[in-house]
Design goal:
By secondary structure, the chain is of the alpha/beta class. The protein has helices at residues 3-23, 67-79, 101-116, 131-135, 141-144, 186-196, 218-223, 302-311, and strands spanning 37-44, 85-90, 120-123, 153-156, 161-164, 204-208, 227-232, 239-244, 253-258, 266-275, 279-290, 315-319.
Length: 321
Amino acid sequence: MTRREFVKGLLAAAVAQECAPAAADTQTAKLAPGMLDPYSIGVVSDIHTGLPWAKQKYRTGREYPWQPDASKRLVAEILAMPNPPATIIGLGDISLAFGETGDYEIAAEVLKPLSDAGINVVHAMGNHDIREEFLKFFPGYDRTTKVPGRFVSVVETPYVDFIILDSLKEPDIRGSYPACTGFGLGEEQTAWLNKTLPSLSKPAFVCAHHTAWDLKLEKICAKSPKVVGYLHGHHHRWMTNYLHNGYSDSAREIRMMGFPSFGLDHDVGWGLIRTSPEKAVLECRARDFYFPIKRPHGERPPQWDMFIRDWAGRKISFSLV
């Protein structure tokens, strides 16, 4: 056995061991009271479930046949934990590309074991989503939203809250990649955020599919005393950077964190945030790396396994005081 084969085997074994208890039956019943951890929050992003080519109304020119099973394995991993997180935040792009009804039907099936187990799963909208289609399988967001016409949520946990913004600018033309690359908050959502942040009574993360830089939120988030970090998806990569509101003596700096895809491509995995009164610590559960448009059937480039090792188990801390 070569060194490369040995390392690859270790990575596969680590994931298999953590997933094994739930892999045989992802349709897990509601967990017993007390099993879910109210102080832990899971973060997933960019699921991108999609119909096969032959069933697509809006042809993407792409197929990812491995994707549903890849996401199901990560769902099984979450449910196999001794105390799974009581809350999971989704950072958008549930649909493969053009927000087809069937995309959301597949996603709902993949994610159903989480809600069946009693976990509160709350999604943001990404630029590949369509709100009307999403509601067919994930109902209620239009009734609970903080901003009419958008899906904006506030998720409360014991030590820190999550403000989940809607950065989706729906395309004028369905089925066009250039048309579904828009983003923005709009005036009403921006006004709501500007009003909400100064009134926060608890530390909070601001979350959206797009980065704070894309949405021009870096200064408002950094200067808000209760905002402790910004979480986003979109790039299918583990990413970390900092936001600040200037260079004066009173300037604040907070961390911005990007998350991988939940089974599609590039970095693959999810994040687990454990909270206490003093801090929130994110563990990067890096599970794979592969490059689009298709996973190779031959030898994996050695760099791919290095990408996984660079992030697997890495801890990112956010101060709550």
